[in-house]
Amino acid sequence: MIRKEINRISEVGKALISVEGNPGVGLNHVVELLDAQSSQSLSFAKAINIGEDSTRLQVFNGTQGLSTKTKIRMHEIPLTAGFSHNMLGRSFDGVGEVSDEGPQVIFEKQLSTRLDTLNPTVRLVPKQVLWTGIPMIDVFNTLVKSQKIPIFASPTEPYNRLLSQIAQGAQADVIIFAGIGLKFDEYHYFKKQLSQSGNIGKTIMFSHLAGESQIKGLMLPDVALSVAREFADEGKDVLVLLTDMTNWSNILRNVANYQDMIPSLQGYPGSLYSELARRYEVAADIDGAGSVTIIGATTLESLEDPVPDNTGYITEGQFFLENGKLKLARSLSRLKQQVNGNTRNDHRAIMTAMASLLADAEKAHEAAEVGAANDAFSQKLLRYRSDFIDKVEEPFGDSIDLESALDMCWDILRKHFEATETGLSKKLIEQYWNK
User: CA angle, 21 as apex, 19 and 25 as ends, to 5°?
Assistant: First the structure.
């Protein structure tokens, strides 16, 4: 892959460097910048202009710290990621290098990280459930293999804990965790939780810590998704957990500013939508192969912020984490109707009935705050609301299969209402009310 090294830069600008002549790379090929003394990797760049007299290269995260003595290592092809089945159960950094204390991984092949668009003719209509063990997801917003969906949460919410919970209960062949801009304690939390999980043998962890090279954070989703796609091509159902895509977008903004790109809203590049879409569109159920499902945590102050706003147009719903709970009223899986009619015969009915009662309970809660809602049924609704929040919207704890989750829903209804108050059909009442 590596063709040669050049020991001198002829010119260093704000975001661009130049070398004399043509060093033997093609347009958009990758360049690695190395410290002149130690040969330690400093940054990456790509060739953007090749002429007879000079070649200009665009540095991904600015030229600060570079000099004309900085060495350049030319790469013959766009940056690649190593792939091996021995990656399962291991931890890697943002460019796919081993970051745990285990032995080096001998890669079976090198994968392009360009994330080329998948041919639409090989995409299947999503029709397979991906169970997570979390009732609020499995019952009310069922996840579908090949779905792309974000977790929207404020920066103070336990969204990383939720991703860990999903990783421990998800029924997927391969689980890939990709953390961008993680704090040190977050990194160790994930490592500990995943190592204790029964899914550790099918989990791969890619991590970029806050303070590490921005380019490693920028590249991490591409490396993780390239590996995910390779497993899917082998027939595996792969779940990719990305966190935090706002961190990743902020790195993208910094890189764009270094490169003097014209900024758009809040300084993000005008290409933010297409950059996010290119990653999320890796999610697919592939004809004759497996699938890639993507859940991406996106932190926000407001849904009108550029990152969640663009993400909402790209993805197929959202899980909304608020006060440590997965909120039914603000969460939506746009693909759930593809699968929840093929599960237990009460699934759709119980989902609809409980959601309707919760909507009434929220109105009763608002009325209670101004001293109303004193009638007997409103009091039932208020008690139901409290139980629903504590038992159904609570995403943390032991994983629960769908049968147990649906039985729990019936228990909650029986506890607070008469059968005739639920809106459920007589047939289902006869089958499940006294079960």
Answer: 80
